[in-house]
Amino acid sequence: MEQPGRQATDDIYGPELGSLPSPDMDDAEITKTGTTTVGITTTDGVVLATDRRASAGNLVASKRAKKIAEIHPRGALTISGAVSAAQALISNLQAEVDLYEARRGEEMSMQALSTLTSNFLRSGAFYIVQPILGGVDDEGAHIYSIDPAGSVMEEEYDATGSGSPFAYGVLEQQYEDGLSNDEARTVAARAVKSAVERDTASGNGIIISEITEDGVEIEEHDDIEQLL
């Protein structure tokens, strides 16, 4: 029964005024994440790797897309999904990490950083982004898989993007406990190379990052073979 002064609605869980924002695209576009990103934990820290191609439908929009960004003195994020949303997410994370450290005088833990990233994605403001968060803190090396809805899973290795099925094939076969950073670089490069050979949305070289207690190093290579 309708109560005086209240607007009738078919959805009893919906907002009383207005409606929640929703992305102006169909489900096929929402789930489209053309790229390949890989993260591996090691005895030394973490290795992240991505291709460098940014696609817009069937067009190669960029051959030098920056898909790994340092967001913490000992942590970095890979990009998979909408570029504008990912760039905004990175800027917000960097600002929040700096603010946290300025207020508390200590580095944010990787678990706290994964929760912060999850909360940003859960808000819906950065939809269509599926990052891998990798970093090192006092508890060791961490890789977090974070989906566009904000769920967080800590993994020993992970892959995202349209090339991830091909990358996973390599990771499943070649990952093992006790890999050094140098060994993990080779495995990550092979995983990205496998994806590039079969996924048209991935290509144009590789970006690779090593994260240790000393910090984050990011380098780019035009030819993946340089790392094999």
TrEMBL record:
Main location: cytoplasm
InterPro entries according to UniProt: Ntn_hydrolases_N (IPR029055), Pept_T1A_Psome_bsu_arc (IPR019983), Pept_T1A_subB (IPR000243), Proteasome_sua/b (IPR001353), Proteasome_suB-type (IPR023333)
Keyword Protease applies: yes
Residue positions of the active site: T35
Regulation: The formation of the proteasomal ATPase PAN-20S proteasome complex, via the docking of the C-termini of PAN into the intersubunit pockets in the alpha-rings, triggers opening of the gate for substrate entry. Interconversion between the open-gate and close-gate conformations leads to a dynamic regulation of the 20S proteasome proteolysis activity.
Propeptide: 1-34
GO biological process, one term: proteasomal protein catabolic process
UniProt-annotated location(s): Cytoplasm
Gene Ontology CC entries for this record: cytoplasm; proteasome core complex, beta-subunit complex
GO molecular function: threonine-type endopeptidase activity
Top-level division of the source organism's lineage: Archaea
Ranges where the record places region Disordered: 1-28
Assigned keywords, A-Z: Autocatalytic cleavage, Cytoplasm, Hydrolase, Protease, Proteasome, Threonine protease, Zymogen
Enzyme Commission number, as recorded: 3.4.25.1
SUPFAM superfamilies assigned: N-terminal nucleophile aminohydrolases (Ntn hydrolases)
Catalytic activity: Cleavage of peptide bonds with very broad specificity
Top-level enzyme category: hydrolase
Listed PANTHER family: ATP-DEPENDENT PROTEASE SUBUNIT HSLV (PTHR32194:SF0), METALLOPROTEASE TLDD (PTHR32194)
Protein task: Component of the proteasome core, a large protease complex with broad specificity involved in protein degradation.
Assembly and interaction partners: The 20S proteasome core is composed of 14 alpha and 14 beta subunits that assemble into four stacked heptameric rings, resulting in a barrel-shaped structure. The two inner rings, each composed of seven catalytic beta subunits, are sandwiched by two outer rings, each composed of seven alpha subunits. The catalytic chamber with the active sites is on the inside of the barrel. Has a gated structure, the ends of the cylinder being occluded by the N-termini of the alpha-subunits. Is capped at one or both ends by the proteasome regulatory ATPase, PAN.
HAMAP family listed in its UniProt record: Proteasome_B_A
Recorded family membership: Belongs to the peptidase T1B family.
Name under which the protein is recorded: Proteasome subunit beta
Taxonomic source organism: Halococcus morrhuae DSM 1307
Organism taxonomic ancestry: Archaea, Methanobacteriati, Methanobacteriota, Stenosarchaea group, Halobacteria
